Backbone:
């Protein structure tokens, strides 16, 4: 079962990357994916494999968030620095739609939330996208007619307001305490799995492989959807607005309407990413949505991969998440050195991760401002 769950997303990725026609990619991509799954399952040590799968899950979720930002900034030039707010809205909305109300025992310990509808996972994802889109409409309506810096001010302000609301309003989503989020198809690890006696049960420690397949499926669907609309006349108008707004307006295009649509589409994608993030962790709190972690790092991902390039957005997410995870080992290695300098420094070592990312961003802007892949050029005909 573990091999099957790994083979599905790996075969999809191989199908996308192999530079052949559809038939060639299918007949070569599927064997490559299955072969990689067997190789990982039987060659890589189990502990390392679990780490790699967990890494791939989070990197894929951040790739979805990077794609949402690419719609707003990469194609339209909308300076959204409140990504954390849309991610939080998506995460908490899906959590409230899919969880049950706290039991009497949990209420005795202070657990509370505004509502718990116990809806299916996909309903929670849809609710997250819609809610994030509605919030984007409220932000964009008074700001998109003004200069672009007003959107930046509004988005970062709304993001902080959202985070503080979830921190202080305990009746809404359990206040500052973590809110437990159900994980989709977790019943497959029970006996009988999801009530189906004919289906073999999945080992609890192998659940991450299943969620990895779910996240990759969302990533692939969103990638193709955004790629398709980016190559459509609608996407060409967005690029024209970014490059020369006044000239685009003279051709009869409603600039405000197109900007609003781009802001809402990007926010919906971010809401989906936030929902997948919540279900991946199994519990969330306001602390997961700080500006540095849920906004700054996503901007670095897009800048590294290549603004205006969906492949670059995905590549940047995997590279920067690798740097982020790798920097944790570096900070652990530096703890004895910091301890020798000052007893207070080891407690601040986690902030070195942000320093590494900040330095990397500066290097990108100085030496590779177009990113690793750069923008894909399309014929812009309005």
Residues:
């Amino acid at each position: 079962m573990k091999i099957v769950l790994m083979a599905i997303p790996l075969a999809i990725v191989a199908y996308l990357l192999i530079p052949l026609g559809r038939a060639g990619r299918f007949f070569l991509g599927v064997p490559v994916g299955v072969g990689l799954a067997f190789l990982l399952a039987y060659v890589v040590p189990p502990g390392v494999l679990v780490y790699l799968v967990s890494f791939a899950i989070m990197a894929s979720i951040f790739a979805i968030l990077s794609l949402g930002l690419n719609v707003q900034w990469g194609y339209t030039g909308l300076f959204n620095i409140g990504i954390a707010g849309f991610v939080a809205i998506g995460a908490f909305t899906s959590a409230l739609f899919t969880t049950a109300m706290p039991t009497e025992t949990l209420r005795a310990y202070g657990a509370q939330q505004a509502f718990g509808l116990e809806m299916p996972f996909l309903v929670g994802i849809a609710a997250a996208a819609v809610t994030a889109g509605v919030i984007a409409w409220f932000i964009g309506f008074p700001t998109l007619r003004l200069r672009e810096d007003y959107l930046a001010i509004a988005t970062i302000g709304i993001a902080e307001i959202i985070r503080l609301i979830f921190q202080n309003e305990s009746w809404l989503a359990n206040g500052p305490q973590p809110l437990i989020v159900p994980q989709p198809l977790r019943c497959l690890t029970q006996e009988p799995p999801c009530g189906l006696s004919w289906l073999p049960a999945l080992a609890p420690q192998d659940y991450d492989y299943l969620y990895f397949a779910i996240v990759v499926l969302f990533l692939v669907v969103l990638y193709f959807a955004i790629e398709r609309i980016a190559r459509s006349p609608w996407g060409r108008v967005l690029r024209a607005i970014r490059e020369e707004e006044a000239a685009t307006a003279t051709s009869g295009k409603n600039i405000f309407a197109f900007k609003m649509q781009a802001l809402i589409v990007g926010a919906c994608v971010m809401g989906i990413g936030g929902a997948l993030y919540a279900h991946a962790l199994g519990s969330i709190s306001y602390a997961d949505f700080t500006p540095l972690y849920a906004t700054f790092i996503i901007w670095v991902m897009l800048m590294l991969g290549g603004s205006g390039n969906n492949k670059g957005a995905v590549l940047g997410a995997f590279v920067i998440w690798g740097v982020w995870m790798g920097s944790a080992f570096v900070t652990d290695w530096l703890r004895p050195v910091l301890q020798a300098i000052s007893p207070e420094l080891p407690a601040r070592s986690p902030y070195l991760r942000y320093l590494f990312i900040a330095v990397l961003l500066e290097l990108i802007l100085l030496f590779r401002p177009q990113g690793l892949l750069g923008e894909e050029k399309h014929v812009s005909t309005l």
Q: What stands out?
A: The first strand starts at residue 179 and ends at 180. The chain has two domains: 1-43, 44-367. The two ends are 50 Å apart (CA to CA).
